[in-house]
């Protein structure tokens, strides 16, 4: 589909923001801004932590490309403000954004829809006692993952290999969140799969297989090193890749996502069963980012991808 850049009007690229992922958002936003301008779009940088969103209306912006990550970026709050201002925006609406940023709520919905996700224990602040914490490995087995359910980019995440690590892991995650999510560890291939579109027209892009040193796909290896390998084509059997894409689109629809998103999964080595970990509704768009990489494998350049996403901007209603 050919998109006329002029038809998009004046576009604000929302970037920066006030979350723990501000640094990544600035990298994403800079890439998107340059890509849109290179295609002839009247695009401008806009940092909501420095300026009031009301200025978008005052300055005549026709739409917003959300390149914010984390809280106040992909949690439904900015989306709600843009709804009130009547400015169409990229990505999921208020409800889907609010659910997807909460990994516990996401898992509950996926379980209700019969979709596979690892077993988990949620520990609200009041239950983070020594007695309760030591019970978790008995329920989920070891190793297990401890993480804050509202953060992304592997912030505050610990892979717990022994019971003695549990207290420190919960304390670290609790610095970032009131609730701590403890999750069964799935041993196997780490995958990610982007989705474009909405409802019946939503389609999965090629699956990416992630091979990190010693399996340590952490904040540093995600953004600042080149040792992690991203395999696309994934090298998975064709039938397995198709099944993963089917599950990812179902997971996207179950949360009510639109525009674009990216699901992270594990495929268990022992039986090749896929498990959904989370849905990113405002994925990274840096040079290391995965959605552009997958889109490129499908024949779509970074610039075309940015243009496509900008053109999909909408309001909930």
From TrEMBL:
It comes from the Bacteria. GO terms for biological process: cell wall organization; peptidoglycan biosynthetic process; regulation of cell shape. It is found in: Cytoplasm. Binds 2 magnesium or manganese ions per subunit. It catalyses: 2 D-alanine + ATP = D-alanyl-D-alanine + ADP + phosphate + H(+). The active site is at residues 21, 153, 289. GO terms for molecular function: ATP binding; D-alanine-D-alanine ligase activity; metal ion binding. Residues 107-311 form the ATP-grasp domain. Mg(2+) 1 binds at residues 264, 278. Pathway: Cell wall biogenesis; peptidoglycan biosynthesis. Pfam families: Dala_Dala_lig_C, Dala_Dala_lig_N. Its EC number is 6.3.2.4. Its cofactor is Mg(2+); Mn(2+). The keyword Protein biosynthesis does not apply. One of its GO terms (cellular component) is cytosol. Keywords: ATP-binding, Cell shape, Cell wall biogenesis/degradation, Cytoplasm, Ligase, Magnesium, Manganese, Metal-binding, Nucleotide-binding, Peptidoglycan synthesis. Mg(2+) 2 binds at residues 278, 280. NCBIfam families: D_ala_D_alaTIGR, PRK01372.1. HAMAP family: Dala_Dala_lig. Cell wall formation. Belongs to the D-alanine--D-alanine ligase family. This is D-alanine--D-alanine ligase. It comes from Piscinibacter aquaticus. The gene is ddl.
């Amino acid at each position: 589909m050919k998109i006329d850049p002029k038809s998009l009007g004046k576009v604000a690229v929302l970037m920066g923001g006030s979350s723990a992922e501000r640094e990544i958002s600035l990298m994403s936003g800079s890439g998107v801004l340059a890509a849109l301008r290179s295609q002839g779009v009247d695009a401008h940088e806009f940092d909501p932590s420095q300026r009031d969103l009301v200025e978008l209306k005052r300055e005549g912006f026709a739409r917003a490309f959300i390149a914010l990550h984390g809280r106040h970026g992909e949690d439904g709050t900015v989306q709600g403000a843009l709804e009130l201002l009547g400015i169409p925006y990229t990505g999921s609406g208020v409800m889907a954004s609010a659910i997807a940023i909460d990994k516990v709520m996401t898992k509950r919905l996926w379980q209700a829809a019969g979709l596979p996700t690892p077993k988990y224990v949620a520990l609200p602040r009041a239950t983070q006692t020594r007695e309760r914490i030591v019970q978790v490995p008995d329920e989920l087995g070891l190793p297990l993952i401890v993480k804050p359910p509202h953060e992304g980019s592997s912030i505050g995440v610990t892979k717990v290999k022994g019971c003695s690590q549990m207290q420190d892991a919960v304390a670290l995650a609790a610095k970032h969140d009131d609730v701590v999510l403890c999750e069964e560890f799935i041993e196997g291939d780490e995958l990610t799969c982007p989705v474009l579109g909405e409802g019946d027209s939503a389609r999965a892009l090629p699956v990416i297989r992630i091979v990190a040193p010693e399996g340590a796909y952490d904040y540093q290896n995600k953004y600042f090193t080149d040792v992690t390998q991203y395999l696309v084509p994934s090298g998975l059997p064709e039938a397995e890749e198709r099944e993963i894409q089917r599950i990812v689109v179902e997971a996207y629809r179950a949360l009510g996502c639109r525009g674009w998103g990216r699901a992270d999964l594990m495929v268990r080595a022992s039986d090749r069963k896929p498990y959904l970990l989370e849905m990113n509704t405002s994925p990274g768009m840096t040079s290391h980012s995965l959605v552009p990489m997958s889109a490129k494998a499908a024949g779509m350049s970074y610039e075309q991808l940015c243009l496509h996403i900008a053109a999909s901007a909408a309001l909930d209603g």
